[in-house]
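Chain A, query sequence.
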Amino acid sequence: MTALFALATSLLWGLADFGGGLLTRRTPALTVVVVSQSIAVVVLGAIVVATGAFTEAGPQLWYAVAAGVVGPVAMLSFYKALALGPMGVVSPLGSLGVVVPVSVGLLLGDRPGLLQFAGIGVAVVGVLLAGGPELRGAPVQRQAVLLTLLAAFGFGSVMALIAEASTTLTGLFLALFVQRVTNVAVGGAALYASVKRGGRALPPAEEGGPRLVLRSLPALAFVGLADVAANGTYSIAAQHGPVTVAAVLASLYPVVTALAARGVLKERLRAVQAAGAGLALVGAVLLASG
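Chain A, predicted structure.
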């Protein structure tokens, strides 16, 4: 069961990341986050009412609130990084978020093994190789790397927090609902502040304006629901088996995004970039499995 749900997490996160990255190329990233998560709130709200999950309310929901605060920052950073591209580099670097749950374990008394030390070295080399060739004379690509690392830290934090937010299936529905409500509140406040400063909430009129967002609703719904489903499947995987196994398999989601980018966008990477992205992913797996 752990392997099945963790692999489902990889598939869902990978497809959600790919869809979110595509959407932010024409629609402001904050709008993508707020709309997609709002759709998830409506669906989860209906599930919570239908299952009576409100009876599971308790102090553990503060973990869901914390995940809801961190999540929009991570998603916004990652979607912006994906929009800058190339997805085949950005997505594997995002998998370094697995460092966070491993670090939590260290703080609770775990001691790093040989594989974890190896993972740290491999991951650092991977980051340098994947981002380095793009840094010279290309400040935009430097921004993409930094945004991805920020997103990775946020995603890892959400993984650690949401796993602590519930112990039952109905409790998980409620935790995910609280997380998404917080996502929308934080993202909505950021969107409002951005508009007040002169930013856009909608695509330019010449690119479709509000009609483009309406036409994109099915894709936005998929991104929001796939992301929340991935959080749910990861929580189930972590609760029904070793967290290290769940983290290793769930951290493979960048492979899905990279394959989707290659198949749909026909992205081609330099050899050194592809090697660096691969090493970053290997490092993430070693960190989780050590």
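The longest helix spans residues 169-196. The chain has a mean pLDDT of 82.
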